[in-house]
Amino acid sequence: MKDFWESVLHFAKTTANKVGSELLADFGQVQPKEKPDGTLVTQSDKWADEELRNAIASNFPTHGILTEESDQILPDVEWCWVVDPLDGTTNFSRGIPIWGISLGLLYRGTPVFGYVYIPPLNQSFHGFWFGKTGLTGPEGAFVNNRPLQTSPDQPTMNHFFSFCSRSIQVIRHPFPCKIRMLGVASYNFLTVAAGLTLGGVEATPKIWDIAGVYPIVQAAGGVWVPLESASIFPLKPGLDYSDRSFPTLVVARNELVPIFGPFLQELHKG
């Protein structure tokens, strides 16, 4: 499958980087509208969604597509792309330079490849992680083609942990690290993969927020902890994922789960 994986990586890189570069022209210049779920959307989100869907359909016509802005029911196919055309719309519309394009490739409902491009920072993350799928191929997680590895450090007040705006209220003090809020679910978890933070939590991420970063985090040595009783993956064909949230904790390694986990008990649903 070497040729297949090379084509997947080349497609993700050229497509996401092209769309992201063109979005830079609208960065901080567009007015958002509020969707029924309270999140924001702009014409830039919708344009990027259409561009990415058309590119996938043209290059991988047998693959399914699941996106934030249009196709939200998982098709019954072996391979499916999960697309967040603009993760961090609030940051994008307000001129804050952390936002990106996220692509995840599912195999039988489980993410095995992810690519995230952060245009304002000129950072491109990608990773392959096959888990128990039976697939073989390239391994590892990378940023701008340099290998990623999570941090081996112990928590101190000179280390970082990221919260989202919906989880920050559950913090009990004293917390063992400095706290940050980045405003972008994918980048929150990518900072763990890159060794910049020891952990991060998202209270209400949707599948397009996490599918692209899931393989990158795993390949970098991070630990993905669903804050519900049920596993996230594999996803189930025919289900509408538009209103499904997946509370998640990501940490740099297993030993940190009992350190950070107790602070997040109120986010557990099951």
Automatic annotation (TrEMBL):
UniProt keyword annotations, A-Z: Hydrolase, Magnesium, Metal-binding
SUPFAM superfamilies with a match to the protein in the record: Carbohydrate phosphatase
Keyword field contains Protease: no
InterPro entries linked: Inositol_monoP_metal-BS, Inositol_monophosphatase-like
GO term, biological process aspect, one: inositol metabolic process
GTP-binding listed as a keyword: no
Entry binding sites for Mg(2+): 68, 84, 86-87, 209
Co-factor(s): Mg(2+)
Signal peptide span: none
Domain of life per record: Bacteria
Gene Ontology terms for molecular function: inositol monophosphate 1-phosphatase activity; metal ion binding
Any Pfam family matching the protein: Inositol_P
Name this polypeptide is given: Inositol monophosphatase
Organism the protein comes from: Planktothricoides sp. SpSt-374
